[in-house]
C-alpha cells in the first residue's frame, strides 16, 4: 500500500497561532492515515524562536503515528532559528520540494 502524502505550505510569519492551526491540520492528516508530511517553508518569511519547541512536538506526534515529517525550502532566518535552538537534528531537512519528490517519493 502506498503511503499517503500531504504537503503543507504556510506563508508569512510562522507564529504560535499558525502552528496551532498547522497542528490541527496534521492531527486530521494522521487520523486519515497520512504517513508522509512535507512542511514547505518556501513562503515563510520568519519563525519565532519560541515556536521551535512546538514544531518539535508536532514532529514527535507524526513519528508516534509511524509517519515521517520533512521540511524544505528554509530561508536563512528559519535556518538560523533552528540552529540557535539546537533543533536541526530533530527535522528531516531538504533543499526544496523537488528533492523531496526525487529522494523520498521516488524511493517508495
What does this structure look like?
The protein is α/β, with parallel strands linked by helices. It has one domain (4-105): Transcription Regulator spoIIAA (2-Layer Sandwich), CATH 3.30.750. The protein has four helices and six strands. The chain has helices spanning 16-31, 51-64, 76-84, 97-105, and strands at 4-8, 11-14, 34-40, 43-47, 68-72, 92-94. The strands form two sheets. It has a four-stranded parallel β-sheet. Helix 3 links the parallel strand 5 and strand 6 (92-94). The mean pLDDT is 93.
Instruction: Indicate the radius of gyration in whole angstroms.
Output: 13 Å
Which class in CATH terms?
A: Alpha Beta
The total beta strand count reads: 6
| Tally of separate helices | 4
The CATH topology label is: Transcription Regulator spoIIAA
Quaternary state of the chains: single chain
| Largest sheet: number of strands, sense, barrel closure | 4 strands, parallel
Notable traits:
about 110 residues, alpha/beta, Transcription Regulator spoIIAA, 4 helices, 6 strands, globular
Summarize the structure.
With 108 residues, this protein is α/β, with parallel strands linked by helices. It has four helices and six strands.
